Amino acid sequence: MTDLPGRRLLLVHAHPDDESINNGATMAKYAAEGALVTLVTCTLGEEGEVIPPGLAHLAADRDNTLGAHRMGELAAAMKELGVTDHRFLGGPGQYRDSGMMGAPQNADPASFWQADLDEAAASLVEVIREVRPQVLVTYDPDGGYGHPDHIKAHRVAMRAAELAAEPAYRRDLGDPYDIAKIYWNCVPMSVVEAGFARLRAAGRDKELFPGIASPEDVPGVVPDDEVTAAVDTAAHAPRKAAAMRAHATQIAVDGPFFALSNDLGQPLFPTEYYKLVKGRPGAAGREDDLFAGVDA
Ligand SMILES: [Zn+2]
Fold first, then answer.
1. Which parts of the chain fold into alpha helices (H)?
2. Residue 61 DSSP symbol
3. Cα gap 51→275, rounded to integer Å
4. Largest Cα–Cα distance in the chain?
5. Ligand 1 centroid – CA 284 distance (Å)
6. Residue 150 assigned as binding residue
7. CA 285 – ligand 1 centroid, Å
8. What's the gap in Å between 186 CA and the centre of ligand 1?
9. How far, in Å, CA of 108 to CA of 282, rounded?
10. Which of 46, 49, 116, 219 is buried most deeply by CB count within 10 Å?
11. What CA–CA distances, in Å, run from 179 to 14, 109, 166, 215?
């Protein structure tokens, strides 16, 4: 294990694009600083809607080739962020996108939503015991906004963190390892409100986006006092925007704003926020470094 970089960050996400939207600047920052940044994506996002009309044929109800295309988008995004270690849970295509909550795809036996929790967690335990991250980032129990794959990604990440530390659990998957700090993605309400105020003031809703979203459309919004860490990633915001742009089937970026397939404009947040749910905070107030207080 001596050849691993001193600081190691693991992120667990549901679909290609979630990592760039939620943590793109954080990933770019720590990668630039020499940390090992490992991304595990749980599905290929096969059920996503496609924004560019010229690529609409990729969608699940037409050619059903969106998954392979999004693997390419993810690889391009990782190049923008300087992240070289990105993997799919259990290998590419092991778990299929479950679609939005309530969609018939939720019942597909191949879907991530239907996957056996401990079986999926075992694949992640193997990654955890290999890269030995001090910090794990994933979603809150609601997956930020209730998408089944995001909820499942949360459950798999939390279960795998527990099992990885269990001395008696599956020694064939590596030596036991206890992740020091676990964070959930979040955005403080005041930042979301200020972002939408900027968006309305810029009048961009009239130019690029047919409408603007509302704060309730932003995943993981929490009262300000629930946020425990704010990573100042402003210097890496351009790389975040470039990574989001690489997910062209899913995201339309316009300056400091972007829209998903619902065409509703929303602010792009250059500072990224987190809630510490396991481990001791490394600062008295809000932390500004996810590795604060850990041995590296
Ligand atoms: Zn997603």
1. 18-32, 66-81, 117-131, 148-165, 189-202, 204-207, 237-246
2. T
3. 32
4. 59
5. 33
6. yes
7. 31
8. 14
9. 43
10. 46
11. 20, 31, 11, 32
Specify which residues 34 forms β-bridges with: none
pTM comes to 0.96
- Report how far apart, in Å, the C-alpha atoms of 191 and of each of 18, 142, 196, 205 are: 19, 20, 9, 19
Cα–Cα distance, 88 to 13 (Å, whole number) = 10
Q: Is 175 annotated to bind ligand?
A: no
Q: 142, 101 in Cβ contact below 8 A?
A: no
**Ligand 1 centroid to 21 CA: how many Å?**
9
* pLDDT at 248 > cutoff 90: yes
What does the chain come to in residues?
296
* pLDDT at site 280: 95
- CA torsion 39-100-181-239 (nearest 10°) is 50
69 is in an annotated binding site: no
Beta-carbon count within 10 A of 226 CB: 14
Coil vs helix vs strand at 144:
coil
At residue 294, what is the residue type?
V
| Cα 14 to middle of ligand 1, angstroms | 5
User: How do residues 118-128 score in pLDDT, each as one tens digit?
Assistant: 999 999 999 99
Ligand 1 center–CA 78 separation, angstroms: 16
On the 0-12 / 13-18 / 19+ scale of CB atoms within 10 A, 243 is: buried
How confident is the model at residue 207, as a pLDDT? 67
Looking at the predicted structure, is the pLDDT value of residue 65 above 90? Answer: yes
Q: What are phi and psi of 181, to 5 degrees?
A: -135, 135
Q: State the chain's mean pLDDT as an integer.
A: 95
Report residue 264 as tokens: 């509703």
